[in-house]
Design a protein that fits this description.
The protein is mainly alpha-helical. The protein has a domain of 90 residues: Rossmann fold (3-Layer(aba) Sandwich). The chain is 45% helix and 7% strand. It has five helices and three strands, in the order αβαββααα.
Length: 147
């Protein structure tokens, strides 16, 4: 199950790889199959895509029956709601932190002088007449008759 994010036990991974279309994966309890709801849904969606049925003995989920499929769809809807709420809370937390003045991202490692060590680099960029780069040519500096 390549798309699962968290750890998958080696024995479970071997089991999942050997399942073929028409097989049924039976577990004692749903929480024994995955660590998070997201991983569980991803895993069971992939099994469904491969044509493998699923059955949990203690939660009475059997994807071969209409009730089991409905139960699975309700779990999927709740998982989607959970993902949406997490994203919403994260965005609200970031916005609140920014209002408090929290800076996000990596702090700069180099100072402007380390990036451009020339002593007048900043003033040259501003373009004032007295701080012009000494290598810039001006028309009045040219030799008479050379222009």
């Amino acid at each position: 199950m390549d798309r699962c994010r968290s750890y998958v036990a080696p024995a479970l991974l071997r089991c999942l790889k050997t399942l073929q279309e028409g097989d049924t994966l039976i577990v004692w309890k749903l929480d024994r199959l995955g660590r998070s709801l997201r991983d569980l849904i991803t895993m069971l969606d992939e099994l469904k895509h491969r044509g493998v049925k699923f059955r949990s003995l203690t939660e009475a989920i059997d994807t071969d029956t209409p009730t089991g499929r409905a139960m699975w769809q309700m779990i999927g809807v709740l998982a989607e709601l959970e993902r949406s709420l997490i994203g919403e809370r994260t965005r609200a937390g970031v916005k609140a932190a920014q209002k408090r003045g929290v800076k996000f991202g990596r702090k700069p490692k180099l100072t402007p002088q380390q990036i451009d060590p020339r002593p007048q680099a900043d003033t040259w960029r501003r373009g004032s007449a007295e701080s012009r780069c000494p290598f810039q040519s001006r028309a009045e500096d040219a030799l008479p008759g050379a222009v």
